Amino acid sequence: MKIKEAVFVISNTDLSKCPQDGKPEYAFIGRSNVGKSSLINMLTEKKNLAKTSGKPGKTQLINHFLINEEWYLVDLPGYGYAKASKTSRAQWEKFISDYLTKRKQLINVFVLLDSRLEPQKIDLEFMNWCGEKEIPFSMVFTKIDKLSSSALQKNLAKYKKEMLKYWAELPPVFTTSSTSGFGREKLLNYIELINKNL
Ligand code: GDP
Prior knowledge:
198 residues, Rossmann fold
């Protein structure tokens, strides 16, 4: 897919304020610092569409970006930063679970996973929760330029093993690097293919 246009539409914490035009939505979520903003900027070829920030947990908003006037890329707040208070975590959970479970036009959630890390409890829990709620998701490994291909394969295998403890089959798996652009075409083509069949 060629990205002809990527424009910011709205940021909010309220499901009722999200765009109402019914265009398909693809959400991106992951732990703070997983590389979500960098990936969004890489996919859209815009330097600052999503803000990359050194401050974990700063963006607690749901951000809608309209791509090619056709579909929304939805940037969801990062989860699992240690410093968050109980209240803000509870707010995050309510708001995100509302979005994920009630948003009819949500087609797929891309769950970002740092390819350098062993399977993380919080990520596994989140994916299991998506599975239980029947929310379609894909696994997107980030920062693959930071490790050797054998180390990457090892970590992927560990994740697969963990997932297959709970599920009969794996969701789609993508490997990406925001610095090299690796994985861009595959991920965008996946979205394009789904959009064509809607
Ligand atoms: P976010 O908190 O998930 O939005 O993460 P950011 O996109 O802000 O990235 C966190 C840090 O990881 C930043 O210092 C980025 O420069 C770095 N980073 C993100 N993606 C990649 C990648 O694919 N390769 C490398 N080498 N660094 C990355």
